[in-house]
Amino acid sequence: MLSRYFVFLFLVFSFITRVNSQTFELPNIIGFENIENNNGVAVADYDGDNDLDVFIVANAVENPNNPSSFSRLLRNNNNGSFTDVTNSSGLVNLLTLDDNIDQSSPNQMQEGYKYGVSWGDINNDGFPDILFTHYNKIQLFLNSGNSTFTDITASSGLPVTDNCSNAGATWLDYNNDGYIDVYINDWKSCGSNRMYKNNGNETFTNVTETLGLTEITPRHSFTAIPFDVNSDGWIDIIVTNDFDKENYLYVNNSGQFFIEDAVSYGLDNSIDDMAIAISDFDLDGDFDFFHGGIDENSLLENSGNNNFTETSATYNITEAGWTWGVKFSDFDLDGDEDLFITNGFDFENNGPQQNIYYINLHSQGVPLFEESPQYFLGPQTISVEALDFDYDNDGDIDLIVTNSDGPITFYENKLINFDDDQTTLNWFKINLEGTISNRDAIGTTISLTTLDGTKKRYHSGVGFFGQSLKGLHFGLKEATQITELKITWPSGIVDTYSNLNTNITIKAIEGQGFEILDIQPSQKVYGCIDPSSCSYNQEATIDDGSCTYLETQDITGNTSSSFLRIETYNYNYGIDSTVSWQVTGGEILSGQGSSSLTVKWGIEESGRVSLIETSSLCSSLEVFKNIEIGANNLPENISIARLWNEILLEAIREDFSRPTVHARTLFHSSVAMYDIWAIYDEIANPYLIGNTVNDFVSELEEFSTNENLQESLNQAISYAMYRIISHRYQNSPGVNSTTALVDMVMEKLGYDTSYSSFDYSNGNPADFGNYVGRNIIEYGLQDNSRESSGYDNEFYEPVNEPYYLDNDENGPINDPNRWQPLALENFIDQSGNITGENIPDFLSPEWGFVYGFALDDQDMTTYQRNGNSYNVFHDPIGPPQISELQNDESEFYKWGFSMVSVWQSHLDPNDGVLWDISPNSIGNNDISSFPTNYSSYPNFYNFYEGGVNNNGHSINPITGNVYETNIVPRGDYTRVLAEFWADGPDSETPPGHWFDILNYVNDHPQFEPRFSGEGEVLDILEWNVKSYFILGGGMHDAAISAWSIKGWYDYIRPLSAIRSMAENGQSTDNTQSNYNVLGLPLVENYIETVEEGDPLNSLGNNTGKIKLFTWLGPDNIIYPETDKAGVGWILAEDWYPYQRPTFVTPPFAGYVSGHSVFSRTAAELLTMMTGSEYFPGGLGEFRAKANEFLVFEDGPSVDVVLQWATYKDASDQTSLSRIWGGIHPPADDINGRFIGKIVAEDVYDFAVPYFNSTLSIDDNLETSNIIIYPNPTKNREVYISNTEINDIVEIFDIQGRKIKLNNKNYSEVNRTTKLKFNSAISKGMYLLKINDVSKMIIINN
């Protein structure tokens, strides 16, 4: 509905552009409603009534639940409207669900799976037939002559299915027998483009090989255009090729064979060519070609003897974008052909782009094209094809543009109108009918001469993803007489006519003369054509501005707001009306459908709140209010640190899914913000700046500032974060959006992004922020993360060969206890990014070498494998190993991975199982009750029903009330759980997800930022920088711990374990032929053997295989918006985790679960930082809306509200979600939770002393000659230079307690005191005092 009003408003406010007195409008054409997401388009007069009908290809596989997935035949009513006659015509079942197209991977050729439409009269009966090109399929329909079509693909000899990416089809008569043959382009999927010869009896023969047209090395071909390049009377073929490969020119040798010879003619263009257009653009009497490519285009100018040179720059045609369709047409009727280019593609860093219109000035005596940037303005689109035709027979040329990302765009040319009394611009149209030549006259050349000169046109009808049968159209400016019309037919016959009138349409028949057709312009009816209007006229075809609508009120509320501010907007609507609100730039918190709407504005340039009021009779126009969103006047609970943390989380969402990398960046950014705050603070101590950390020396000189303290902090933090984010995400797939975001925020804050000085001696906070940012960046470049080489691996190599998910020929796994890479046709990571590799590498197996925060050598064990070292932090017991020994460890391996499959049988919301998922029933499980050995696991996990034995919370301790029950289908709960915790609700990866949860806690109205829940309420900036510092350190140490373990133990994932065991058979009944000690254990009703007569054994070739009662997998999901896989029996060899088939499983080893480590670390830290294990108010919630939340299948069936009383409850839920999701067995889980608790305790103890020193630090150290190094200590040693033997050296903990020094040595030679701290002194922050001089030091293990 909104799009309809959008068009209406364009008309009301005269969205009209005039170029050389030319006028276009965007009419609301009846018949084009709800046509969107399209590829090819072509026109022909299929019913013989002298107007052009339109066929538009929908790009999606036909889905009854998605109306826009159906392609449409629109009959021209010649009154300004069209009628959808698709169903009655018989043009149905065009690539349906029954064709079993694999839609799991996005098609990189073009959006969707249906592409082209080509009109052509295959049997010369005068009725255009139609051919469709799809992915893996071709369809040919014969026109019966009574407005209906019959699918004759099977009988025609054309392949019904062909495993090709059939980009487009071109009709041409290569052998001059009078019948059109067809050349079909393949986008490098099935070996070669193909030529099919028309046998003259509605059948075709594949003559590709016979004619020498088989490609030697297949290329990604898009478009073929027939043209007699060497003027020998035989049609040649020019083919465009993608991926910088040279285009083909196939030279026709008397219809017997073709020779590729593009080089000789200068037609070997190679610019990722898509479409091609032909025109005598310069009016010199020969034909030239224009090619569209990726970020560059080519104009191949004919030298006069059919040799071509690229001259686009000469004529002022520059690069346009990611170009698809290109079209020459005389839109302004001035005698030369103008150029229209469509752009845009949703791939990597590309997206919607502006289409471009070039006005040809040659007829005005200026040898240039003029780009008209103001023309066809409006939103950028991902456009595919542009089709020019005179839809209303009024003599000017209209334009249709198909868009893959939205509604079709229809431009009506208003140079001439049906009810004009007179016009100064003239035209001429000619329809062609061959007799000796093919009836469609493809390959005909026409020359038309007036007193203004000669104009030439070439007839092929070829476009991008389409071929039309339409007359040739000449603009004649003021000319009123045609002195000569010359028609050169493909047969060689030349017909010449003299002294014809203008402004007529003729039909020329080869060798038989012509007739003037009595075609009247469309007789349009003016009136209101909007069905939602209160004055809708059902007879009207042209909107005359007479529509009336419900009277509206103004929306009230602030028009100037700030980032992350909550606002309320009000609207008074009629008693009998309803309202539907829409918000851009923010999120609706409450009030949809009511008179009062609560909105939280995002970090956006601007926002918009709008609504439509609807009564039982009609609706209002859209009522809207534009909102200015700024950085000034942030909400009281939003500090500058919070703002930049939210920006960083958004940058993470736009990046590749890399938990280790993002945990590191979250930590480093938190250090930057904390250190800046600490340096400006009188008590706190910075972590990195001014210290030596992991051998990285950061200097800090004294400075003072004249700025307001708050402004200094805001400015310094902003510049530091701007530098860090810009650096860290410069190679992100979302770099454009991230750069735009940080630039926009800095502009809103009033800061100059080009300011790069870091000389902060004058106290300029921008300089200091740049200095801190530079230090963080330099520290990161030497922290062993291998950032400078893209975080690659130095030595790790997998022991198992990749498992090809789309191949049934995988060999047995080499080691069923080790990680196996997965090979996918297209790997799309959890954040939705196409990585460009189909076998993703193990992410961060050597992360144990990365410098941590609170981790030290005592936490680390170093192992050797294949001559390489692996540092492992918090080394747990190893995961269970399967072997032929039939020991307890092997049995637990099989038990754990089997449980993963059994739990996936819980993913069906229709199984009748209901659960109370409130804190009343779930949670409150103390970590001391967790099993510590694998033999105890079966007593902890509920193997059959799912989950664990929960204690629950009897009451909410904050409110004193009992938690209300929250009953939902188990199948909805488990699916939501798996999706929600998989990578966070917005794919910010688990470390970022817990920052999101911390921010959620910060925003709770009952939350008070008291550190550890004690003392005074902190300033929000102080709370943010401290809590981010601690949580960032925790997430970073959790990542190092978990991935150091993953890299060393290199443990197998469920997908590989279950399938490899299934290949071996079953390990329960040794009397059966399929028994194998390494097979899956049989579990009645869940894991069984396929018997004779089993539905899975319909062909009799699966007897003895293992089957699972589990989630049916992605093959049962065609349309994620409406389909859900459900649960049932499948072959174990086909088992999938509950993930997208383009992702399947994270590309790294399973043991230990990163989610378990991250989540337990975060939960423990949140508990310690807030001083309460409970969420504010005793309840944390997340609402997953029914039929909206799930990504790769429909669901949930009801609203599911995830609830947690405590942070640890949320953490425990995270761990279980990975089992239901099919990502981890229980062995990966528990040890991860234990490690998370240890990491959190160490991080908290290490971090807090930086904040809370109770001892004063003298300034005398700065003026004395004493130097203390290294600080933090290395090997638990510290040196104090420029001391005397009698100096008093003392050390105190942060509570002021004196620590006994047992190992102190003095060197008289260099006047240096050496202190060695024994293991009884725990790591942390201490005060070192030398006489009356004191300094904080950090003791590391």
Characterise the protein shown here:
With 1341 residues, the chain is an alpha+beta fold. Helices cover 19% and strands 27% of the residues. The chain contains 19 helices and 68 strands. The strands form 19 sheets. Strands 7, 8, 9, 10, 11, 12, 13, 32 and 33 form a nine-stranded mixed beta sheet that branches. Strands 1-2-28-27-26 form a five-stranded antiparallel beta sheet, with no helix packed on it. Strand 8 (129-143) and strand 9 (149-151) form a beta hairpin. Helix 12 crosses helix 17 (1207-1220) and helix 13 (989-1003) packs parallel to helix 16 (1154-1170). The two termini are 66 Å apart. The model is unreliable at 1-20 and 1254-1263 (pLDDT under 50).
How large a portion of the residues is in β-strands, by DSSP E? 25-35%
Which outline best applies?
globular
Low-confidence stretches: 1-20, 1254-1263
Computed structural class: alpha+beta
Mean pLDDT: 92
- Main β-sheet, in a few words? 9 strands, mixed
> Span between N and C termini?
66 Å
How many helical elements?
Answer: 19
Q: Please give the share of residues in helix.
A: 10-25%
Per DSSP E runs of 2 or more residues, the count of β-strands stands at 68
What radius of gyration results from the CA coordinates? 36 Å
